[in-house]
Amino acid sequence: MTAPLAGLTVLDLGALCAQPPHALAVSMAAKLCAGFGAIVVRPVPEAGEPFATMPPLLPAGGSALDRFLNADKRAGGTDGCFAAVIGDTTALSRHAAGIAVKVRVSVFGPGEDPPMSELGLQALSGLLDIVGQGAGIPTRLPGHQAAYAAGLAACTGLLAALKAGGAEIVDVSLFDVSAWLNWKVAARVAVLGETGRPGPSDWLTLPARDGHIALVYQDKDWPALCAMIGDPRLLGDDLTTAAGRRAGRDRVTAILGPWFAARTRAEIGAAAEARRLPIGPVLWPAELLHDRQHQARGFLAADGTPLMPLRADGQRIAREFDHAA
């Protein structure tokens, strides 16, 4: 199968972006383009690749972030024939002349690009307020989820522009994407009048004998969970509703805890599967290399590098390039 972007060259200006959120979003968009078969050229400033020293750092040296985002790209300059270019406003103004499709990443939109961090984006968009429990301190989303989501939006816009043909400027707002990630909470506030701030949850992460188990269930699953645990204290009338279980969270945890702690994750998973309960083991990163699901899906390479799960015409797109950034 011919990859959708095979034969096209994309200019990745992520290393030349002025702010980290923009750089991450642009670099992710370009990585997706490489996954779809494009040759991606990534020029770097004189100081070198900005991601090269960013955590997480690998035991043998170098940055896992750099490897993830840039492994399938070619080092090169801004001169050449490019089908598309991705960058922030300043980088595009300096290096995108003559390129038909331009993808511009900014904070709020064209001309509205104040200093911004990933933490600031999460705060402004409301994402920060929904992570954490009750009146506790808001918790930052781990990793670079907001920036990567903006990268996905940027790649989607680029693909649409290439499909349409002709000259096109695609604008992606980091704030808009972050707010979109939070759309369900905003909708609940607008439609149901909720405050949006999460209260105590009846979903739990519990210690098992060899790690932890994530227990995520709906109201319909509660009888099956009670049957699996076999403790009559769970059958009290005050625990039959989600609201009751949230109010009695500490008591529910105290009842469930010993049952889970006495069993391995595999034993708990088998018992839950037999009752069609949505329970999942919390895997250590090293375990992912040997997880059957990830092996079947080809998600991780032997060295632990994640492969993009990209498909075209129903077929998985194999990596065609293996260029060091």
UniProtKB/TrEMBL annotation:
Spell out the molecular function terms from Gene Ontology: catalytic activity
* Gene3D superfamilies for the chain: Crotonobetainyl-coa:carnitine coa-transferase, domain 1 (3.40.50.10540), formyl-coa transferase, domain 3 (3.30.1540.10)
Q: What SUPFAM superfamilies does the record point to? A: CoA-transferase family III (CaiB/BaiF)
Q: Which InterPro entries match?
A: CoA-transferase_III (IPR050509), CoA-Trfase_fam_III (IPR003673), CoA-Trfase_III_dom3_sf (IPR044855), CoA-Trfase_III_dom_1_sf (IPR023606)
Q: What is this protein called?
A: CoA transferase
Tell me what organism the protein belongs to: Phreatobacter stygius
